[in-house]
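Tokens as discussed.
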């Protein structure tokens, strides 16, 4: 008898979950535990560094080892009289939000491993020693740490496949479709957390380039465009090099600093986007020029090309 397609996928889910739990065991019970023990003995790195590297891996490990894997195993043993996994995955889905923290922390964790391996030879030696063990299968700590980052997309793919292969009359159809929707939302939540973190990091870098001026630093701002621009002076028919930062709520008109200690730019003028008007100027002497007028004042600016001018106006 050929096994039904949906059962094969459910078995694949169980097998990959078993392998995944061993990987989590390695991360939490071997790497984290041993590195923490050495940190507490004051031999390698501060305890806080180890905590920051492994984020909330212990909670993730416990959840999968003590709850999800046993529930899946039970289901697969009873498959012949109760062929369903949708309800178990629905119970799992809300807990997957825990991954948001781990995923968001991943790049930072990898940076910390690199930085402290250079600073602390005993730390590097301990990691190398664990990596030599058979259980590591010749893979690095960083490689093993990537596994939780890739796990939710894997659930999503397997479950999509499972729903596709389910016969229309299957008792698991309703539950499996709902579970897939929940997993999809969690994956979105995790991606949104990463996007938000990247946005804040990029914003912080911009604020540093502007010298961290109090009235400008606001985490809710969004940088839309930045770049060099020429300022037109009608008095003596000349142009001078300036730099613009356009946020969702303000345009910063800046001057590049000659001596770049600390800040890269000095903010000369801030125009509120609210009530701002922008229009192209047809100036034969100075092509690609446009006018920006706000409540504070009006600027005549020149871009390097028609394309660049249109991008700013837009």
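Sequence:
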């Amino acid at each position: 008898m050929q096994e039904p397609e949906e059962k094969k996928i459910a078995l694949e889910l169980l097998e990959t979950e078993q392998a995944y739990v061993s990987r989590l065991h390695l991360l939490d019970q071997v790497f984290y535990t041993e590195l923490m023990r050495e940190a507490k003995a004051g031999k390698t790195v501060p305890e806080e560094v180890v905590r920051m590297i492994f984020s909330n891996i212990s909670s993730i490990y416990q959840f999968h080892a003590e709850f999800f894997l046993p529930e899946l195993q039970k289901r697969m043993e009873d498959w012949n009289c109760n062929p369903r996994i949708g309800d178990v995955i629905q119970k799992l889905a809300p807990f997957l939000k825990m991954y948001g923290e781990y995923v968001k922390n991943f790049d930072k964790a990898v940076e910390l491993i690199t930085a402290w391996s250079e600073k602390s030879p005993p730390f590097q030696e301990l990691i190398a020693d664990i990596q030599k063990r058979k259980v590591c299968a010749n893979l690095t700590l960083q490689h093993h740490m990537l596994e939780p980052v890739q796990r939710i997309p894997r659930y999503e793919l397997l479950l999509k496949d499972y729903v596709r292969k389910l016969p229309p009359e299957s008792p698991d159809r309703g539950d499996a479709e709902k579970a897939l929707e929940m997993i999809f939302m969690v994956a979105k939540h995790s991606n949104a957390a990463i996007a938000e973190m990247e946005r804040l990091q990029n914003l912080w870098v911009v604020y540093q380039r502007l010298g961290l001026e109090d009235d400008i630093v606001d985490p809710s701002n969004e940088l839309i465009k930045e770049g060099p621009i020429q300022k037109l002076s009608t008095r003596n028919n000349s142009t001078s090099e300036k730099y613009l930062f356009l946020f969702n709520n303000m345009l910063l008109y800046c001057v590049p600093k000659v001596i770049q200690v600390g800040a890269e730019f000095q903010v000369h003028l801030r125009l509120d986007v609210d009530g701002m008007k922008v229009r192209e100027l047809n100036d034969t002497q100075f092509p690609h020029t446009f006018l920006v007028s706000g409540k504070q004042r009006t600027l005549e600016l020149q871009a390097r090309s028609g394309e660049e001018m249109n991008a700013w106006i837009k």
